[in-house]
Amino acid sequence: MQALDLEMYAGLFAKSSGKGYYSRISKWTPIKCALFRTQSRLMHFNHYVVAPKELNEAMQVDQDGDRPVVPLCASWFLPNDPDKRSGYATYKHERIPGARFFDLDAVKDSKSQLPHMTPSASEFATAMSILGIINDDCVVVYDTKELGIFSAPRVAWMLKVLGHEKVHVLNNFRLWVEQELPTESGEPQQIATTQYNPATANRPTEIVDFDKVRSVIEAKRKDEDSITVIDARPSGRWHGTHPEPRPGLPSGHMPGSINVPFMDVLDPTTKALLPSNELIGIFNSHGVDPSMAVISSCGTGVSAAVIDLALAEAGHASERRIYDGSWTEWAQRVSEKDSLIERTVA
Predict the structure, then answer these.
(1) What are the residues whose beta carbons fall under 8 Å from the beta carbon of 299, sequence distance 6 or more?
(2) What whole-number distance in Å separates Cα of residue 201 and Cα of residue 100?
(3) Rg (CA), the chain
(4) DSSP string over 97-137
(5) What tens digit of pLDDT does each residue of 258-283 get?
(6) Using CB atoms within 10 A of its CB, is residue 159 exposed (0-12), middle (13-18) or buried (19+)?
(7) 314 near 277, Cβ under 8 Å?
(8) Is 7 helix (H, G, I), strand (E, B) or coil?
(9) What are the catalytic residues?
């Protein structure tokens, strides 16, 4: 994260005023996180994906001296959003009481020109310290109510990759609002900074780079198919019939990749993640082999995390990784003459 970005990010808070196919075993689910004590009994969330009423109940119970659960708003919109919305504007307009705002455009690898590359452990620790979060805090990440589930899984995934174990995803803020659970608006209260300790090392098996993905795609062209590549972008962009949201970037897809648009794993009305049995059916219908490792990709690594989350909830027990640079990197580093960008008729 660039120094200027960090100063601006800190300013968001410093300037605030006042107040059968799949087994049900997953690498990351369920992740149990201590939230509160009641009647001398330690309580936990039972699943990685948390329902609105579960989170609200956890926030209402007397913490008995423990640090409360931290709602973390990860709202983010595509750069070509027709309404020119911003994540921070929606956060100020309506949020879960006490929520902090995680700026996905600011907390990134400062050495990369790509939009959302995973930050270094030290960059991440600085951002978490500004947010007033400590290593042992239980964090529940959520999205804007307009999109339902979109960028929150990416932020939650980032927290896990960088060593923050007690993290969950809310399913979702749209339902939170519809169920008339508490919200607040306006500038957030000032947050006291903390000392977040960076992890000693990343978990490299959760992230794949360009060279690894290229080797996988080259192997597919030789019919050596041992890893599934899932592309979470909308079908028009995958087929090459619709433009990318970033000017100058061609659309299309990696040869041999499977298109599972991230919206397919969400309820069409509530935009909440679908139940596990429906997710299993969706991955079945797209030909995702549960015995094969999966690399998820998208535009910049954001909605790829939605697919990764859906795979986890469906019980995909094989190795799951995310291509951090995703299509934005791929399309800049290969060319159609290399036969590494394909277009099809939808």
Answers:
(1) 78, 233, 237, 244, 245, 246, 326, 327, 328
(2) 25
(3) 20
(4) TT-EE--TTTSS-TT-SSTTPPPPHHHHHHHHHHTT--TT-
(5) 999 999 999 999 999 999 999 999 99
(6) buried
(7) no
(8) helix
(9) 298
